[in-house]
Structure formats: C-alpha cells, structure tokens
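Practice problem: Flp pilus assembly protein CpaB
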Amino acid sequence: MNQRVLFFLSITVIAVGIAGIFIQRYQHSEPQAEVMQTTGLKVITIAEATRRLHPYELLQAEDYKIRTLEVDNTKEDIRDLSSLSSLNLNGYLVRNNIAEGTAIMPALIEAPTSKTFIMHSLRGNELPYSYLVKPKEAYLLSALKVGNQVSLFIRITEIERGKKNGVSFEPDSGGAGSGNTLRKFALSPVLGGLSILDIQQDKTKEEKNYVADPDAPVGRIVLRMNQEQLADLRVVEKAGEIILFPAEGSQEKNKKKEMDEVLPQFRAIKELRGGK
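Answer key — structure tokens:
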C-alpha cells in the first residue's frame, strides 16, 4: 500500500470522527432542552406562622415571618401570597386553625379591606363599638392600624370636702376647687386588650365660610368587645370622659394615675387643708 492511499484513509477517518462528534452533540441538545423545560422553577413568597394561630385572631407582626422558596413553575402553589395586595399581613383575620411552622395560606385569612371583615371578626357574644375621635385626638387616626390593641381609660374628677375621707365624683370641670373643697383629676383603666376592627376618618367640609364645630368628631375607631365589656363601659361612661390609649405591653402599666403623682404640689395643697 503506497503513501497516497494511506493519506486518503487518514483523511477519511478524521472526517468520520469529526462528523460523529457533531452528530452526538446535536442528539444530546434536544433532550437537554426538554429536561430544562420540565424542571423549570419559579420563586414564590409565603408566610409561616411563628406560633399556633386560632380563628378570630388578628395577625400581628410577631405572629408570622415572610420567606421565599423555589417551586415547580408548571403548578399553582396555594401558599403563594402573590394574590394578596400586600405582603404585610398585620391586621388580617385568621379564619381557621393554623399550626406553628406551617404556611399561612391566603384562603385561611381575610383582609381588613374585605366587606365581610367586621362581621367575620365577631364571635357570638361580641359586638362592634365605635369610639368617637375628638379633634384633639385626631393623631390616633393615623397612628393606629387595624389589628392594634388599645385600652380605654376614664378621666374623673374627685371632690374632697374638708377633712372627710369620702370622695365624691362630679362632672368633669376645670379648677382646683375653693374653700375646703379640693378638686382633683384621676385617670383609671376601664377596659384593656381591645382589638381595632376598623378606622374611619370623616371627610372635612370645604364649603365657603364653613366653620367646623371644635367638639365634632373627626372620625371613629371601631373596637371589638364582648357583652360583659360593653356593659362595664356603659356603667361608667357617664362618670367622666372616656379616653383611648394604645395598649401597653405590660398590663401592670394600665393602672390608675392620680393628679398627685403628676403634680406633687397638689399633695401639698391637700396637706395644708387638713387632708391626709
């Protein structure tokens, strides 16, 4: 066999090898594309309960945590929060029991903006109570949110006459008293741990020459309370002025506060008048 034949055989072998490589690559490219398509992933956002949640509870920031995870992009995941208007679930109503560490699915909660939110938030013995917001309390309408908890206090006027130990209550009025009468004010807790169901701000009139009533409510805060709480409130509400405060973290702070504690000079006036 001469050199020319060997040369052509070598060229043929090389050509066949190169063609085989290209054919093999082409055959593997299509299955690989199919695998990538069938195993495609997408990222969803979910909320997980940090404690056991019960029906009628309103979610607080510490009740859940938000995280993302990858799932099959060909399937709808019932945990996905993309159907909600916001990832902030504060104030959402829990409709079913949710175990700690499990996903809070959109189907298990109801948004405060829902038309049936207040109705579904009330247990059988509960009622909505509207607290009328005075102009001097207008800051509450922007400072508080649905789901926040608040306390109701009553501001009363205590009248001490002479050296008598008895204390009588009179309608709230200014002044510290005269003669042997000493008028003092005190703030006492009435109800605590009340959940906010709705916050409504009244629209201000912009008519020409319109003068707003300084005592007219500028809005209302709808609270959830049971029948016993409402009865307690009705008993005392005429004895003084009902005032709403954001609930303290510790109930020990929700205690009676007297004027002597804030203004010690009134304690001295009481002592000079023969009081104890």
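Discussion: The chain has a mean pLDDT of 80. Students who identified this feature from the tokens alone can consider the problem solved.
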